[in-house]
Amino acid sequence: MAEENKTLMTEFVLTRLSDLPGLQVPLFLVFLGIYLTTMMGNLGLIFLIWKDPHLHTPMYFFLGSLAFADACSSSSVTPKMLMNFLSKDHTISMVECIAQFYFFASSATTECFLLVVMAYDRYVAIWNPLLYPVVMSTRLCIQFIAFIQVFTFMTIMVSYTHVLFAILKKKSENGMSKAFSTCSAHLLSVSLFYGTLFFMYVRPGLRNKEVIGALRRIMKK
């Protein structure tokens, strides 16, 4: 039996939100504004936590890590999307797609684990306030972050291997398009889920009196 012909996909075409030429620049400006606002908020919070000694506590340490993970998550997909609005070349190579998906998935997974650790931190602060400085030591916080990074890497690599093998086994372009349309819908759902969780935790932090006080002290300097 003759071996069946197989075509290996090396690049994919990114569909835009709209094919109307007149909407590309306005959409670019809208999403650029959202991206810059997100980055300024995340990086600004990280800077405040790093600069002000009053915020050198476990809660703000994890909050800064969450802001950094969210910044990485946004930066993994948004720049390519912004380029797609203005560029005539709407293709992405398989290597770029794999790298983009890895960084997005790892950032989103890190955010999920960080929310669990932050919940434990608040549990200790409420139920054991006198032992809180001893239990939530700097060493334990660093160990939590290290564990999250290692566990996230292992989880993503295992899942990623299964996804990669599933993609390579597809023999028709129709099968590939269905796989990636399902993947895009999944990514949208994950983005909405983790984005909502992030704003539930970070928005109160940005309105916190200690954060506002740290911002005022930095501005006075």
UniProtKB/TrEMBL annotation:
Provide one Gene Ontology biological process annotation.
Answer: sensory perception of smell
Where on the tree of life does the source sit, at the highest rank?
Eukaryota
PROSITE patterns reported in the protein's UniProt record = G_PROTEIN_RECEP_F1_1, G_PROTEIN_RECEP_F1_2
Q: Which GO terms describe its molecular function?
A: G protein-coupled receptor activity
Q: Which organism is it from?
A: Camelus dromedarius
InterPro entries for the chain: GPCR_Rhodpsn, GPCR_Rhodpsn_7TM, Olfactory_GPCR
Main location per UniProt?
membrane
- Supply the Pfam families for this chain: 7tm_1
Subcellular location field: Cell membrane
Q: Where is the G-protein coupled receptors family 1 profile domain?
A: 41-221
Output this protein's name: Olfactory receptor 5H1
- Provide the membrane topology annotation: Multi-pass membrane protein
Question: Does the entry feature the keyword Zinc, yes or no?
Answer: no
Q: Which UniProt keywords apply?
A: Cell membrane, G-protein coupled receptor, Membrane, Olfaction, Receptor, Sensory transduction, Transducer, Transmembrane, Transmembrane helix
- Give the transmembrane ranges: 27-48, 60-78, 98-120, 140-167, 179-202
The cellular component terms of Gene Ontology attached to this UniProt record, alphabetical and capped at eight, are: plasma membrane
Q: Where is the signal peptide?
A: none
Family (UniProt): Belongs to the G-protein coupled receptor 1 family.
